[in-house]
Amino acid sequence: MINSVQETALTLDSNTSNIPFASDVVRTRSANCCGFLNHSVGGTQYQITNAGIYEIMFNTNVTSATVGATALGIKANGELLSGTEMDYTVATANVYGNVSANRLYRVCGNGSVTITVGSLPTSGATATQIPAIKNASLIIKKIA
Q: Which of 16, 67, 71, 143 is most buried, with most CB under 10 Å away?
């Protein structure tokens, strides 16, 4: 199991960027190098290397410097996982709102998958703004 956070406010580089996580506040022995889950502190990618069912939980406060739609999502190998899109419409620039998503994800066989959380360029047919996030938390744990 791993719980990574990005507490400091951070504006992403674009509306397609992934969120870097500055620290791993909880990491079990199996989520270290050579375990089932690899992550480098400060990085955006979480590589799951063992088959199983994983619970992925994410929440953050989000805003943008301009009024409009923002969208974040949990991705596997760069593809949005269904049921994880998090939309927030910024009515007043730089005013935060909270978004979250939870998802079970199966890794089959001896395959591996890379998990990221990041901005989505559109929400439906609407182009999104570049998001700013703070107090982001990501938990990945193997449940079966």
A: 71
Task: Give the chain's domain count.
Answer: 1
Domain membership of residue 8 as a residue range: 2-142
0.90 surpassed by pTM: yes
> What pLDDT, in 10s, does the model give residues 46-100?
999 999 999 999 999 999 999 999 999 999 999 999 999 999 999 999 999 999 9
Instruction: Please give the torsion angle defined by the CA atoms of residues 102, 107, 108 and 113, in that order, rounded to the nearest 10 degrees.
Output: 140
Cβ-based neighbour number of residue 5 at 10 Å: 17
- Selection from 68, 80, 66 nearest residue 118 by Cα: 80
CATH code for the domain in which residue 73 is found: 2.60.120.40
